[in-house]
Records
---
Amino acid sequence: MVRVDHGHGDRRCRLASLPLQFLGLRLAATVVWAIAAVLLVALTTATVLHWIRYRSTAAGHQLNPVISHFYGAPPMAFLTVGAGTLLLGKDWVGLPAAAAIDWVLWTIGTIGGLLTAVLGAAPWRSPATRTSPTPRSAAG
């Protein structure tokens, strides 16, 4: 989700805010935003269903020190789709609705990011912190 949304999300926001606009630029950015919004809904639904149907597997992913940091991707996706909604979606849903949607997505993204940082990808889950360092550890 990060590659589809966060990586292209910042480009989409840059395209929408360029001082010099040319024909088709805003439309292209809006199409990318719409695709990202649909993917966000689909992948969020799939993640929720995964947690409901396969709770032990999902919990194992969250506790895995290698996989757990990927739980930071959805909060970034919520933030970038929210920014795109404010910049590009206001033409389709109106400014008050776009601002409300952005506020909700910003809140979900911020809380999700904080929870991920504290519960999921915290440094104490890192394989490097689970070992006992010795004087020879630095030399390999």
Note: Residues 1-5 have pLDDT under 50 and may be disordered.
---
Amino acid sequence: MQSNDACRLPWTPPPAGDVEALPAGKWWDSVRAAPLVGERALELLGDETGAVIQDKYGTLYWLIEVVPLRAGACGRSASSPS
């Protein structure tokens, strides 16, 4: 019989009460929202929201799929100066 550690996926948090920030961008990214904005977003999204974490200060973090940034996605092309 395998132990629980052997069955866990690499991105699965450890089974503990402590919270540890992990680097984003490999398995997931996040979007952060201030408490008032995040609470309103939750109301508007309803059941369409994905995984959300709320820290002890009320800030909300949506875990989202890692998606490569396309050239021009931020309003400038890849050849535009920074």
Note: Strands lie at 29-33, 52-54, 60-64.
